[in-house]
Amino acid sequence: MPDVDLERAWLLTVDGAPQSYVDLDDPEHLEFEYVRRLAHVLDCLREPGAVLDLLHLGGGALTLPRYAAATRPGSRQDVVEFDGGLVSLVAEFLPVAAGSGIAVHVADARAWLGAAAAASADVVVGDVFGGSRVPASLTSVEYAREVARVLRPGGVYVANLADGAPFEFLRGQLANFAAVFGELALVAEPGVLRGRRFGNALLLASDGVLPVAGLSRLCAADAFPARVETGAGLARLMRGARPVGDADAVASPEPPAGAFSLG
């Protein structure tokens, strides 16, 4: 539940780990680095202020949807969150403004995706964690195919994942999306990519051209710079990895103790 109230700023934690940070007076203030990188992806798509249709799998305290509503007013956003208690809590303490274009649905992310209309989203955001792990239902090549079905031509999928060396989970996710999409990119801090620590990584996939140059500039300018991997570097990381089907899919690895805690 929200356990830090800084006037109009709230920090939501789950089992002691920071999950969402919301500034009700400034939705463009993004405290967490991985959320800032997700926002960078949105910033690089189309011209500034252009509306998008977004499907968010995983809602938290709606930090990214609030940002998109502020920076791209008129955008239509569906947010799918499994935890009904969390949805109620956020609606009570951190309500979104009327007319924001954000619709929140209490549902299973994979089931919602399977029922969504084809070619109905410009962007699909995957940020689903059961506790501290991505559920197995969202880690298979069949899931990747459902994402591709829901995206419009040129649309972008971006997922928040977490792993550490030797990156068996992350390599499998890259293989899944490489089997379905023509373009991939990975965004992470150098220390994570070099295997020095467990951490977040964003996976991007599209059947069109990804905004690699603009995204690289924005990520490099952050307080904690991140690198955008594509091409040969990504191919080396993926070498030998194979797509994982529903029958063999597993949840993302359990983070080491203290990896994402407040300390």
How would you characterize the overall build of this protein?
The chain is an alpha/beta fold and 263 residues long. It has a single domain (27-248), classed as 3-Layer(aba) Sandwich (Rossmann fold). Helix content is 30%, strand content 27%. Strands 6-5-4-7-8-10-9-11 form an eight-stranded mixed sheet, sandwiched between helices. A three-stranded antiparallel sheet has the order 1-2-3, with no helix packed on it. Helix 1 runs parallel beside helix 2 and helix 5 crosses helix 6. 41% of the residues are buried. Mean pLDDT is 93; it is low at 1-6.
Question: What is the fold-level CATH name, i.e. the topology?
Answer: Rossmann fold
The topology string of helices and strands comes to EEEHEHEHEHEHEHEHEHEH
What percentage of the residues does DSSP assign to strands (E)?
Answer: 25-35%
How would the global form be characterised? globular
Biggest pleated sheet: 8 strands, mixed
Structural category is alpha/beta
Q: Name the assembly state.
A: single chain
Q: How much helix, percentage-wise, in residues?
A: 25-40%
Radius of gyration, CA atoms, in whole angstroms: 17 Å
**What is the number of independent domains?**
1
- CATH first level: which class? Alpha Beta
- Termini gap: 17 Å
Question: Which tags fit this structure?
Answer:
single chain, 9 helices, alpha/beta, Rossmann fold, eight-stranded mixed β-sheet
SSE topology:
Elements: E1 2-6, E2 9-14, E3 17-23, H1 33-43, E4 53-57, H2 63-71, E5 76-81, H3 84-93, E6 102-106, H4 109-115, E7 121-126, H5 141-150, E8 151-163, H6 168-178, E9 183-188, H7 190-193, E10 199-206, H8 212-220, E11 227-229, H9 231-238
Parallel strand pairs: 4-5, 4-7, 5-6, 7-8
Antiparallel strand pairs: 1-2, 2-3, 8-10, 9-10, 9-11
Helix pairs in contact: 1-2, 5-6
